[in-house]
Amino acid sequence: MPIGANDMKKYSIATIEGDGIGPEICASAIQVIREACGDDKVAFEQAPGGATHYQRTGDVLPAATFDLCVKSDAILHGAAGIPGVTYPDGTEVGNELHLQLRSRLDLFANVRPIKLYPGVRPLLTDERPIDYVIVRENTEGLYASRGAGVRLRDEVVSDTLMVTRRGVERVAKFSFELARKRQGAPRDGKRRVTVCDKANILRSFAFFRAVCDEVAGGFPDVEIDYAYADAITVHMLKRPDTFDVVVAENMLGDILSDLGAATVGGLGIAASAELGEQFGLFQAAHGSAPDIAGQNIASPLATVLSGAMMLRWLGLKHADAALEGAAQRVESAVENLLRAQRVVPRDLGGDAKCSEITDELCRQLQK
């Protein structure tokens, strides 16, 4: 592809605002992204979906919304779920939106950065540097039992933890390739993949570790490390600077990424990307917080940072340096906002409104 071939390309972004604070934080992220790259570079198309839409129509992911996701260059999602809106089996309706997208679009790698930004008061007292990524296998594990568990006479219920060679191989390879692109763990600068499991107890996790070992053989420049799921919760608190990339089964990764987010300020700045070979979905790691919806007090930072991940992914995928530069500018704007401590989100101890945070980020980008 000639240099500059993507200068005129416009990227289509399927946008599902979802429930609760979803519309507010989505609107903020869109405003910031447009400021960073211009209207001539990205086009956002709104599509319905989520628990609110289910209440109105009985459909959590309309066919038209799924079709738009398939034909778009990326998907930006706000938040999904409303407490009490459940299926007959008791599971929440809202989660079904992104669970369906994960499985139908084969978004096998859930990427969740854990980074302590200057200006954010850490949970840990020693203020050591924290900068690692949790890669959660996103299509298998215990969550693969969704909708398929057995409930016998209201007495016995079982769900199955499923692990396949293909599933582990590809998420392990993704993790090692990611480590190659990073600068290593803050403590020693070593590129490292930590395999989190319960290989000492369950065959499924012993298999997960064994396959990761096989994949590691193709990456002699990246160190492999291991941690049991219970022990790693202690290590994440006492020596988080030793981690670079952590790879884990679906449910373990889900739990650990929330713990990691707590150590660096909370879910309000926890971004995530769900990636496959072809498709990418980007959303904050937090929920829909319906109790504060419509009050202009939700922090949009996690969704904004997820939007930056989207721009970087698109830039790398399409060899478009302009998008990669826009991603860096958005991340720098967030870092500057947090460092300056003039506009502080409520979840980080301030009183800034969603609109005020958005305006400040746009001012940063205009400099």
The radius of gyration computed from the alpha-carbon positions, rounded to a whole number of angstroms, is 20 Å
- Cα distance spanning the termini: 32 Å
- Which sequence of strands runs across the widest sheet? 2-1-3-12-11-4-5-10-8-9
**Shape verdict:** globular
Classification by helices and strands = alpha/beta
- The appropriate CATH architecture of the largest domain is 3-Layer(aba) Sandwich
The description of the largest β-sheet is:
10 strands, mixed
**Low-pLDDT stretches:** none
CATH class group of the largest domain: Alpha Beta
> Helical segment tally?
11
Mean pLDDT, rounded to whole units?
A: 93
User: What percent of residues are in strands?
Assistant: 15-25%
Strand and helix order: EHEHHEHEEEEHEHEHEHEEHHH
> How many domains would you count in the coordinates?
2
CATH domain topology of the largest domain: Isopropylmalate Dehydrogenase
User: Count the strands?
Assistant: 12
Percentage of residues in helical conformation: 40-55%
List the keywords.
single chain; alpha/beta; Isopropylmalate Dehydrogenase; ten-stranded mixed β-sheet; two-stranded antiparallel ribbon; 12 strands; 17% strand; globular
How do you describe this structure in short?
This protein is α/β, with parallel strands linked by helices and 367 residues long. The protein is built from 11 helices and 12 strands.
What does this structure look like?
By secondary structure, the protein is of the alpha/beta class. The chain is built from 11 helices and 12 strands. It has helices at residues 22-37, 51-57, 63-71, 95-105, 165-181, 203-216, 229-238, 250-263, 301-317, 321-340, 354-366, and strands spanning 11-18, 42-46, 74-79, 109-115, 131-137, 150-152, 156-158, 192-197, 223-228, 245-248, 273-275, 280-282. The strands form 2 sheets. The chain has a 10-stranded mixed sheet with strand order 2-1-3-12-11-4-5-10-8-9, with helices on both faces. A two-stranded antiparallel sheet has the order 6-7. β1, α1 and β2 (42-46) form a beta-alpha-beta unit. α1 (22-37) runs parallel beside α11, α5 crosses α6 (203-216) and α7 (229-238) runs parallel beside α8 (250-263). It is globular, with a radius of gyration of 20 Å.
